[in-house]
Each structure stands twice: as C-alpha cells, then as structure tokens.
C-alpha cells in the first residue's frame, strides 16, 4: 500500500536528517514529538506524520527544529552548525535547472508541487539528497524566507535557457459531476494528446461530485495549460487545476 511506502520513506528521510544533525532520539521520544506537531499538519498520529513527510506534504525542515529543541533540553548538547553553502560561482545547469552558486549538485523535483518548466521555482538544500526544487508558491515554501528556519538553505534557481525535451510528472485535481463514463472521457482526452497517465484516482463527495486526481507526463507549463483547457470542455467538468 502506498501509505506504508510513504511511512517508510518519511521515517528514513527524517532519521537521516536527524543523524546528519547529530541528533539521535529514542524512537518513543521522536514519536512523542511528532504527535505534538501532528495537529498543525492534520496528522493525528506519528505514523501520519511519517506518511506526510514521505509524500512531501510536510517538509523535514519543519520538523527538525522541534526535535532538536527536545534533544538539546535532554542532552544539553549544542546545536549542530548549518551546513556551509558554497561560495557563489558560475551557474551550473543540472536536470534542466540552474542552481546559482553550486556546481554539479544533485537536483530533484519536489513531489508536493511537481514544478514544470515555466513555473517560478526555488531550491532547498537538503542534507544528503541534493537540492529540492519547488514552485515558489508551493505551500511548503515559506512566504518570507528570511523568517524561515535555516533561511540559508533556500537558494535561487531557474530553468535553463533550453530545457531538454524531457517529460515531467504533474498532478491535476479534476472536479466534476459524478456520472457514468466521466473517467473514460478524461482518459480519452489525455490519450488524444498523446500523453502518458501514471495514475488516475477518483472519489465521490457528499454532494455527489467526483474528485479525480490524475498524474500525467508533460513537458512544460504551456502543455499543461493545453491539457487543462481540453479537460475543462468535457461535459460535467466543473474545475481543473494543479494542486
């Protein structure tokens, strides 16, 4: 089940970051911290928090400060230093993205917002996983970076002048009247555009509407706008948007 995978990934990511910070809390101690933080992120249990971290709903940097605080109170240890960011150098392209001031760095695209060429983007220096690229308006990106924990880890990035002809995963939330054949119509429209569908999930709301999450491959934001326009014309579709 995907939830179990998210829990495992979240557990691994969080504990990896904690170790890199020199923080090694007991499992029960860590779970208590996660349970205290959970209500802020609509996560009732520690497992829910791990799952949210795993799929990108809760960034690790929002969890580390509280765990560090509890750890330091218990062990009276000094807070570890923030990793030094390399001095500015000539921009280097990596996976279609230029990370200013960093050469040959690993780049990954955040699953919480799935940025596309054409989106305004920003980078976050992770520990051990390279630079994570987010949409600037992603809910996991602080509006005021100067007030964020460890603001030095947010870096300027931009799309390379000519992004390679590669495809990027992107998710759409489609809301429509719950009627027979709706999923088939959506699938047909995407196939007509010669695009690949990675996943298609549907649920029914209390007011009789269908909410569909579709993950597809596109090359850029312009192609995504075309997909949204096509899907919006389907009979019974009320809205199509990127989460």
Explain what this protein looks like in three dimensions.
The structure is a single chain. Strand 1 and strand 2 form a beta hairpin. The protein has 6 helices and 11 strands. The protein folds into 3 domains: 2-75, no CATH class; 92-159, no CATH class; 168-241, ACT domain (Alpha-Beta Plaits), CATH 3.30.70. Strands 3-5-4-6 form a 4-stranded mixed β-sheet, with no helix packed on it. Mean pLDDT is 84; it is low at 77-82 and 85-93. 28% of the residues are buried. Helices cover 31% and strands 23% of the residues. With 243 residues, it is an alpha+beta fold.
Brief synopsis:
The protein is an alpha+beta fold and 243 residues long. The protein is built from six helices and eleven strands. The chain folds into three domains: 2-75, no CATH class; 92-159, no CATH class; 168-241, Alpha-Beta Plaits.
Descriptive labels:
alpha+beta; 31% helix; 3 domains
Tell me the overall shape: globular
Share in β-strands: 15-25%
- Cα gyration radius (Å): 20 Å
Strand order of the largest sheet: 3-5-4-6
Fraction of helical residues: 25-40%
Give the helix tally. 6
Uncertain parts = 77-82, 85-93
Major sheet details: 4 strands, mixed
Helices and strands, in N-to-C order?
HHHHEEEEEEEEHEEHE
Count of separate structural domains: 3
Measured distance between first and last alpha carbons: 22 Å
Which structural class do you get from the secondary structure elements? Answer: alpha+beta
The average pLDDT score comes to 84
